[in-house]
Design goal:
Layout (H helix, E strand, L loop, with lengths): L1 E2 L4 E3 L6 H8 L2 H7 L9 H12 L4 E8 L2 E12 L4 E8 L9 H16 L4 E7 L3 H10 L2 E12 L2 E11 H4 L10
Length: 182
């Protein structure tokens, strides 16, 4: 388990997968986080996909736990050990925890995990330009906007830009909330 100020990153339990499935395929969440067509698999297909992706060496998936309650998901994917690089994905699925700091705390924890415990040099996250909460969260943790893919995603009847944010280990160590992380 990885502990933040208010969030613990931990393994998602089998009995929580129906909740994770509901969050993943909630259409309002989808249009803020995905640039793929909205296609909903069966629950059984999703569980199989979840198990397969959880076993991959190029990913590290965690549930975001606040006071014993699963509130979202966070993880690294596309981990490239040669180049010491990974992508970050996260979503606060439980609506009452959005805007309460759980996402920021989780992003800080997964960033520290990537740099300090996994020895990565670069972390990157991508988000749609309409996802203002994720943009604010990324910037507040220290990520910098590095690129804009113009009109990359088709979202609810129109094109939307995708933004790329990055952070280097040399920018993270000793930074953040003023605490020593390195």
């Amino acid at each position: 388990m990885l502990q933040g100020e208010q969030v613990t990153l931990r393994k998602v339990r089998q009995e929580e997968l129906p909740t994770v499935y509901a969050w993943r395929f909630d259409v309002d969440n989808w249009v803020l986080t995905e640039d793929e067509p909205y296609v909903v698999p069966t629950f059984e297909q999703y569980v199989t996909e979840w198990r397969e992706s959880s076993a991959q060496l190029d990913s590290a998936q965690f549930g975001m736990d606040v006071q014993g309650r699963l509130v979202g998901l966070c993880g690294l994917w596309g981990i490239d050990l040669h180049n010491r690089f990974a992508h970050i994905g996260m979503s606060v699925g439980l609506e009452e925890h959005r805007g309460q700091g759980a996402g920021r705390d989780a992003l800080s924890v997964i960033t520290d995990y990537g740099f300090r415990l996994r020895g990565l040099n670069r972390l990157q996250l991508e988000t749609l330009a309409v996802n203002e909460a994720m943009i604010r969260t990324a910037v507040s943790v220290g990520y910098r906007e590095e690129g804009r893919l113009r009109e990359k995603a088709w979202v609810t009847g129109g094109f939307c830009d995708e933004l790329v944010f990055g952070l280097l280990a040399s920018e993270w160590h000793g930074k953040g909330d003023g605490d020593e992380r390195g």
